[in-house]
Amino acid sequence: MNVASRPSPTGKTRTCPHCKAVILESLSICPGCMHHLRFDSEAAKRQVAATSALKVEAMIRHPPVEDAWEYFVTISIRNDRGEEVDRQVVNVGALQGAEKRTFTLSVEVLPPHAPEEPVAPPARVDTPVKAPPVKAPVAASGVTAKSPPATPPKAPAPPASNSGIRLPDGTVLAPPGLGPKRK
């Protein structure tokens, strides 16, 4: 049973039932917890076609001789006028001596529609290929000329010992040193 998915408005959100993150309604896999949300081939193709518009990765290493550091990770999004659209605290924690943390921020963009796959015509292997009918040649007088009878194919000659390899057209390939002796 192939059920076509209903298109969702661009930018509409919903809550992931697994991790409770706010995600796009059009996604078939949650980008936070990577759980499958629905089995929709068009949405999956679209999500696979996502491209990375931004990816930043950095590592913080705590010096081994200092006291523990506390950290908090915030993400701020601004529009084209510089106004803050959203701001969220993503995580908080502490780094003890000689610990390190790696932070990665990535922004993926989705194409408006699933990419089109090239459709190849189905291969027909059950229908034999027939040669076009051969017409008898017509003489200048308008009388149909009779074609000569077909000659049967030549039977291959029996291979001579140490004479080389005989090809279908009758040519014999002799290895070096086995050819006719020269004086």
What does this entry look like structurally?
- The protein has 183 residues and is mainly beta.
- Among the domains are: 8-49, no CATH class; 50-112, no CATH class.
- 4% of the residues lie in helices and 29% in strands.
- The protein contains one helix and eight strands; from the N terminus they run ββαββββββ.
- The chain has one helix spanning 41-48; strands at residues 13-15, 22-24, 51-61, 69-78, 84-95, 100-109, 165-166, 172-173.
Could you name the key traits of this structure?
two-stranded antiparallel sheet, mainly beta, 4% helix, 183 residues, 1 helix
Q: Shape from CA axes?
A: elongated
Strand-pairing-aware structural class? mainly beta
| Helix run count | 1
**How is the biggest beta sheet arranged?**
2 strands, antiparallel
Distance between the termini: 83 Å
Strand order of the largest sheet: 1-2
- How would you state the average pLDDT, rounded? 74
How are the elements arranged and paired?
Blueprint: E1 13-15, E2 22-24, H1 41-48, E3 51-61, E4 69-78, E5 84-95, E6 100-109, E7 165-166, E8 172-173
Antiparallel strand pairs: 1-2, 3-6, 4-5, 7-8
Write a compact overview of the structure shown.
This protein is mostly beta strands. It has 1 helix and 8 strands, in the order ββαββββββ.
